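User: Could you go from structure to sequence for me? I need the amino acid at each position, not a summary. Structure tokens:
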């Protein structure tokens, strides 16, 4: 998929994407996903972080609230415009660029993160390589994607086969497949162990049990690596 195709793919989604997170189940998904990202990334005051594939800034603002300085990067201009509408901050810079060709020097960031962007990048290994390149030595890299082992991915595969404009272009990866994209060994965990149709109150309990069992089938798959010296 070319850069222009990826840009067009998301141009009609910002409002729909934002609205989803205001629903009861969407708000729970956002909270659960951020808890995992926060635990793996551990953004802190003064750290310089790249959020590659930032979308509308759903998680970017959480990183800033932790005191980090963040560059949010995305191909979709409509997504970026939505992110910029959330308010100006000296700690935030939003730019349009491609994860496969990051416009930064080596070792530019203390930490890099990419959340649910890898699904739309066929050459995942190249994307991870670029993220490693711009991360400083001993810096942290976190990548999150939709887990191919989850019921959520199975449903989206079915929707894609029926011609869904977004999911027909998606690539879903398992924990093992995500790990294999990186040049060094890392760790991975999953979250969102409940279904989209689940009652929000019951979903919270399902999530708690899934976390205790350390299940590998949660919809939200996140991996962390440390860049070698």
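Assistant: Here is the amino acid at each position, in order:
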């Amino acid at each position: 998929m070319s850069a222009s195709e990826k840009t067009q793919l998301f141009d009609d989604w910002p409002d729909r994407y934002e609205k989803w997170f205001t629903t009861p189940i969407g708000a729970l998904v956002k909270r659960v996903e951020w808890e995992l990202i926060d635990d793996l990334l551990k953004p802190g005051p003064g750290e310089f972080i790249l959020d590659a594939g930032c979308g509308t800034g759903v998680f970017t603002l959480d990183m800033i609230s932790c005191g980090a300085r963040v560059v949010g990067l995305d191909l979709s201009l409509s997504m970026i415009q939505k992110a910029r509408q959330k308010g100006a901050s000296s700690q935030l810079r939003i730019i349009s660029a491609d994860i496969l060709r990051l416009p930064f020097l080596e070792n530019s960031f203390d930490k890099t993160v990419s959340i649910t962007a890898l699904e739309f990048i066929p050459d995942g290994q190249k994307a991870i390589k670029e993220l490693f390149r711009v991360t400083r030595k001993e810096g942290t890299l976190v990548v999150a994607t939709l887990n191919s082992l989850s019921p959520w991915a199975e449903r989206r595969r079915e929707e894609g086969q029926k011609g869904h404009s977004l999911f027909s272009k998606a690539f879903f990866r398992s924990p093992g497949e995500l790990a294999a994209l990186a040049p060094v060994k890392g760790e991975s965990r999953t979250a969102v162990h409940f279904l989209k149709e689940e009652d929000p109150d019951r979903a919270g309990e399902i999530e708690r049990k899934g976390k205790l069992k350390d299940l590998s089938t949660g919809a939200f798959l996140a991996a962390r690596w440390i860049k070698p010296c």
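One structural detail worth keeping in mind: The chain is about 40% helix and 20% strand.
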